[in-house]
Amino acid sequence: MVPTWRLRAAFARRLSDMYGSEVPAYTTLLDVAGEVNHEVMRENADAERLGGIDRITAERHGAIRVGTPLEMGQAAQIFAAFGMYPVGFYDLRDATFSAVPVISTAFRPIDAVELARNPFRVFTSLLTTADRRFFDADLQDRLERFLSRRELFTPELLDLARRAERDAGLPHEQAERFLALAVVAFKLSAEPVDRTWYAELERVSAVAADIGGVSSTHINHLTPRVLDIDLLYQRMAARGIAMIDDVQGPPRWDGPDVLLRQTSFRALAEPRKFREPDGSVTTGSLRVRFGEVEARGIALTPAGRALYDELVTETDLRSADHPHVTRQDLARSIWQARFPGDERRLLTERLAYFTYQPATRPPGDRRQPPADVDGLLADGWITAHPIVYEDFLPRSAAGIFQSNLTGEGTRNATVGGAHYDARWLTETIERPVHDPFELYAAQQDESLALTLRALGLTV
């Protein structure tokens, strides 16, 4: 049997190879990320505090877009075969001023051991065809009929996925077939695009056109992890790669890295075939795929996340009042003044998640340990290790999308939007959408319970 985690690792590696052959600038991105990571490893003794170099080098997240609840459910089945489950609910419709009519979740491992083996994630977006701000009744009807006629995932692929999930892996020959079919399902199609239909959807939203204007899905971007995203940004620009304007997420500052920072090179014009109204096939280009890169920090608790959101809002307000000051500089000054500047404060103020381990005690030490966690840490009985943030930020994701759009699209602000939430998505795909805060808290609590038990203390 090829176990689940090996299937996942092979899937991530083969997708990366395929995407690199389709988007050569992605290979450049991998090369630069590798250079930066090894430089940081040489110069910073704490570089592996949030993950070893083997994990960071192999780490990827992908992104795909689907059009219907059925397609979302089928994608969930395929990812479950790789040990990847829906975590988090992201509503990108109001996260940016551009028209991005999608809701999303991220399929990823949820067990700490599985994350350490291979933390592959796929950020998966679903088109909100029922949202009247973007699609009137006529366009919704035509769009849904178009989507209902296509087949993204073959019956054989879905059958193998069900077997792999049931048996926690597949025999070697079936595993090879499953991986081949899964990778092909996310390959950019050579089938001609209906120019008129695509253009109609593109006037509403470039994202809607990329989802509902074609007969297949594809990897929209594939994202390596880097230890110094600002240095990578500079190196990519120096190689002549056009980057988006900003690094999304928290600013670069003197304190601990938290949550997620992301940037990308701009979507490239890729040659595509088009079917014209007269039936002829011509050659043109589309800009829909880009190369994203990420730097991961410490997972924040709900209180820490609330503080982060508060600082983002404050940065927005100050940016409006100081248009000649860069957003990064404003954010940095706000963070230096208001965000805890070291891990110990994040821990003691319960703003971030940590795992715990018993510390090595001197021989013959007969002191009794204190009964509280803060005392155990202060007296050196236990050590705390930050938990890596494994998820995403809706505003950052929307910012990446927006930076690579060909236009802002249209939005009818006079009507209300359709309601979608995590419960709706859970019922739609018939799988629980996990709350990331609960996953981090469970990981922290389990480690603390084991540590206290090892010290002979009551949990």
Automatic annotation (TrEMBL):
Q: InterPro entries from the xrefs?
A: HGLS, YdcJ_bac-like
Tell whether Nucleotide-binding is among the UniProt keywords: no
UniProt entry tagged with the keyword Disulfide bond: no
Main EC class of this protein?
oxidoreductase
Q: Which residues form the signal peptide?
A: none
Keywords of this entry: Dioxygenase, Iron, Oxidoreductase
Q: Which cofactor does it need?
A: Fe(2+)
Q: Name one Pfam family in it.
A: HGLS
This entry's Gene Ontology molecular function terms read: dioxygenase activity
Query: Known EC number(s)?
Result: 1.13.11.93
**Which family is this sequence assigned to?**
Belongs to the 2-oxoadipate dioxygenase/decarboxylase family.
Which protein, by its recorded name, is this? Answer: 2-oxoadipate dioxygenase/decarboxylase
Source species of the chain: Nonomuraea muscovyensis
